[in-house]
From TrEMBL:
Keywords: DNA-binding
Residue spans binding DNA: 33-52
Native species: Pseudonocardia xishanensis
Protein name as annotated: TetR/AcrR family transcriptional regulator
Domain HTH tetR-type: 10-70
Length: 199
């Protein structure tokens, strides 16, 4: 779904999306009725349908906004890091910070995929687009650390991150984050030591 660059979204659309994003993340996608979003956003049904043809379009917009924020944060983190390995550590630290945040309910994209398992559904496809970007982004960084193939390490990082996102809701987040960041350190070590197992 493309947006007009430079066009500021309407206040009503922003309010609907902000309200829906907060409730969707806290309570899930299928369980939240449109009427609840309209009431909390103090918006009419006619206004809602002017901006979103249906609820699933709002869900896709919620994921698009989450994707935009995460990409911006990733780029900011990479820009302030002096090297690729520092950037990977900083990205891992950002993820760990999220896991330790009050109200953490896991990964918005993994949660959405669980509720929309059909790979042809627009919501599921939007989840996959985000994950493809993230894998490519971390693999690019790993490609700048050592001379081993980057994508296996990128996939390993993504799997560590996925596991931490799930475990962070079920176990002590401090211990989960320590395990996650230790795993990232292991990946970076394996790329710097000749003969170490491939990351």
């Amino acid at each position: 779904m493309e947006r007009n660059v430079g066009v500021r979204p309407s206040e009503a659309r922003s309010r609907l999306l902000g309200t829906a994003s907060r409730i969707f993340y806290a309570e899930g996608l299928h369980t939240v009725p449109v009427d609840r979003i309209l009431a909390e956003a103090e918006t009419t049904r006619a206004t809602f349908y002017r901006h979103f043809p249906g609820k699933e379009d709002l869900v896709v917009a919620y994921l698009e906004e989450a994707d935009r924020r995460l990409r911006e944060r990733f780029e900011e983190t990479r820009a302030r890091s002096g090297s690729a390995d520092e950037a990977l550590r900083a990205v891992a630290a950002d993820i760990a910070q999220d896991i330790r945040t009050p109200g953490f309910r896991g990964c918005a994209f993994l949660n959405a995929a669980a509720e929309y398992p059909d790979p042809t559904h627009p919501v599921h496809r939007r989840v996959l687009l985000h994950r493809e970007w993230f894998l490519a982004a971390v693999s690019d960084l790993f490609g700048q650390v050592g001379d081993k193939p980057a994508e296996p390490a990128g996939r390993h990082f993504v799997m560590l991150r996925d596991g931490a996102m799930v475990a962070g809701c079920l176990a002590d987040p401090v211990a989960v984050c320590r395990t996650f960041t230790d795993g990232v350190e292991g990946l970076l070590w394996s790329r710097s030591v000749p003969g170490a197992p491939r990351g």
